Structure to design on (210 residues):
């Protein structure tokens, strides 16, 4: 049985990514939340997570940490699910933008932390952050232009790429980022995804505030 250890749903963007993959593809797992920046949560992370962070996936004795590594493990473990697109060229594209999200956009992460239940007056972002925002929107627009005929998600059918960009949906909503039509439609579809709605409701109900 898989166990996914996650942080607070209101704040833990990295936890959301593999959680959403598991929920979308109906892969059975147990969810355990370790509250971040609490004495209890810190002790659990130090004792159990190799890098001291969430998310952490445990499969019997095997531990896999890091969101993207967990998603790759799930794709290997469940080849019957199209966690990545089946077509090799499209899969390469999906992996490229997912890796870019995973390793980049530090300005957006630092200036626009995920805060699902809050709305913030739009701040004045630095030029560097504005360029990152424009790059993310360009990725979404390009994907929707190429693959809209195949379905409502970035690559037509839902994939790991949608999960990798899911936290940005809430970041942009919280900070009032205007989106062009195709990106706005994808963002709306993501917010209406049943698993995303479930995560949001539980984030709103959480008692912790950072």
């Amino acid at each position: 049985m898989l166990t996914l250890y996650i942080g607070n749903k209101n704040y833990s963007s990295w936890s959301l990514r593999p959680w959403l993959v598991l929920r979308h593809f109906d892969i059975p797992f147990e969810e355990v939340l370790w509250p971040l920046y609490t004495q209890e949560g810190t002790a659990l992370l130090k004792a159990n997570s190799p890098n001291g962070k969430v998310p952490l996936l445990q499969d019997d004795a095997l531990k896999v940490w890091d969101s993207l590594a967990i998603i790759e493990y799930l794709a290997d473990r469940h080849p019957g699910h199209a966690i990545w697109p089946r077509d090799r060229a499209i899969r390469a594209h999906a992996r490229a933008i997912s890796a870019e999200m995973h390793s980049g956009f530090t300005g957006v992460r630092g200036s626009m932390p995920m805060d699902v239940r809050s709305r913030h007056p739009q701040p004045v972002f630095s030029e560097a952050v504005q360029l990152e925002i424009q790059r993310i929107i360009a990725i979404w627009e390009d994907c929707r232009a190429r693959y809209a005929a195949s379905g409502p998600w970035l690559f037509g059918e839902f994939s790991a790429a949608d999960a990798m960009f899911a936290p940005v949906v809430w970041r942009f909503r919280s900070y009032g980022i205007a989106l062009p039509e195709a990106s706005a439609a994808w963002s709306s579809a993501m917010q209406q995804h049943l698993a995303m709605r479930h995560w949001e409701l539980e984030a709103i109900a959480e008692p912790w505030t950072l």
